């Protein structure tokens, strides 16, 4: 298969390129190569003639999306449309990377693909519009991921939560992390492996949740990072009301990836994923096998 990855230098894009490269021809497209908001630029996809296009491009600074909803829609919604329609013209699969932020957070059980989305911020609304536009190409996948950490770090956000926590600990700062927002931390290497496997297995087109299994609060995630590193860090639990943000965030956005099990894909637990990430980044020595 010829697979084009848009946003190939991003956090998830980097691991998608690696995951597909082992058995497919990959066309890696950085932001310099393609502008998803520009239909003319997306027309290039037709010349490249891929069998599948994975669109990871996003404007995902959640608070900034509140100030710049037009840009959020240009990239996350119209961008998705441009890619999906260019794919449709050449019979290619369009795969759109979406988010747990399409949900409102009122659930207390991991969200299923069949749960109705009801986003509460401009970012989530623009990504949901992107999902709907992607569905205009019948040969589509929507992969919802969440709270990503990967070795490349999010270029759109300037790193990831794990590295931010480690940097704070190194500075000897007292750290306070919110304990009333729960989510599914997800290692981009695991998400990329699942996405490539689903496409290879020709799973039916549609929407799939792709997160590491389990859930935690951001405080619990931070505590697990320091525990894995054997660091004694002064860590406090805070309420999200202590850190008001421009965008409202769902208080609960864990996703169930159980649907992947139908195609033999089991997502590893997030703590296991965290350990492997820390090893990949050289923060941890690999466990020696006796
Ligand atoms: N990070 C998270 O925690 C998280 C959570 C849920 C869902 N998601 C979704 O997962 C996807 C991947 O996230 P990520 O963390 O890998 O993000 P990332 O590291 O910021 O990667 C996004 C990539 O897309 C490129 N890009 C941005 N705007 C573009 C545009 N208009 N046209 C073409 N390329 C563009 C970026 O290039 P430049 O940096 O050079 O502009 C970057 O290489 C996104 O769709 C995001 O909405 C992320």
Bound molecules: NADP nicotinamide-adenine-dinucleotide phosphate
- Count the strands? 12
Spatial extent as radius of gyration: 19 Å
Q: Alpha-carbon distance between the termini?
A: 40 Å
Tell me the series of helices and strands, N- to C-terminal: EHEHHEHHEHEEHEEEHEEHEH
The named CATH superfamily: NAD(P)-binding Rossmann-like Domain
Q: What is CATH's topology name?
A: Rossmann fold
What portion of residues is helical?
A: 25-40%
Q: On the 0-100 scale, what is the average pLDDT? A: 96
The CATH architecture category equals 3-Layer(aba) Sandwich
CATH class: Alpha Beta
Distinct helical segment count: 10
What is the 3D shape? globular
Largest beta sheet, briefly?
6 strands, parallel
What is the assembly state of the chains in this entry?
single chain
Secondary-structure map with pairings?
Elements: E1 2-6, H1 11-21, E2 25-29, H2 39-42, H3 44-48, E3 52-55, H4 62-67, H5 69-90, E4 93-99, H6 122-134, E5 140-145, E6 148-149, H7 161-170, E7 175-178, E8 182-183, E9 186-187, H8 188-200, E10 206-209, E11 216-217, H9 218-229, E12 235-238, H10 270-280
Parallel strand pairs: 1-2, 1-3, 3-4, 4-5, 5-10, 6-9, 7-12
Antiparallel strand pairs: 8-11
Helix pairs in contact: 1-8, 5-6, 9-10
The structure holds NADP nicotinamide-adenine-dinucleotide phosphate.
């Amino acid at each position: 298969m010829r697979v084009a990855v848009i946003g190939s230098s991003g956090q998830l894009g980097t691991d998608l390129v690696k995951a597909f490269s082992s058995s497919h021809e990959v066309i890696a497209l950085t932001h310099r190569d393609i502008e998803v908001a520009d239909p003319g630029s997306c027309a290039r996809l037709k010349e490249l003639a891929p069998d599948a296009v994975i669109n990871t491009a996003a404007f995902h600074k959640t608070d900034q999306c509140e100030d710049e909803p037009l840009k959020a829609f240009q990239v996350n919604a119209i961008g998705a449309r441009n890619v999906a329609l260019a794919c449709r013209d050449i019979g290619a699969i369009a795969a759109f990377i979406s988010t747990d932020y399409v949900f409102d957070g009122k659930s207390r059980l991991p969200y299923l693909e069949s749960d109705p989305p009801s986003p509460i911020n401009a970012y989530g609304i623009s990504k949901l519009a992107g999902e709907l536009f992607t569905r205009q190409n019948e040969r589509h996948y929507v992969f919802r991921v969440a709270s990503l950490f990967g070795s490349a770090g999010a270029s759109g956000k300037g790193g990831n939560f794990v590295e931010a926590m480690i940097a704070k600990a190194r500075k000897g700062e007292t750290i306070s992390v919110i304990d009333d927002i729960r989510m599914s931390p997800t290692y981009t290497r695991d998400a990329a492996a699942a996405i490539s496997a689903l496409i290879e297995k020709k799973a039916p087109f549609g929407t799939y949740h792709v997160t590491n299994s389990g859930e935690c609060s951001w405080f619990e995630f931070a505590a697990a990072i320091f525990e894995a590193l054997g660091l004694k860090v002064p860590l406090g639990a805070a309420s999200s009301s202590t850190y008001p943000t421009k965008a409202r965030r769902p208080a609960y956005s864990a996703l169930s990836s159980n649907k992947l099990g139908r195609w033999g894909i089991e997502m590893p637990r997030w703590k296991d994923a965290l350990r492997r990430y820390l090893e990949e980044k050289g923060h941890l020595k690999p466990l020696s096998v006796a």
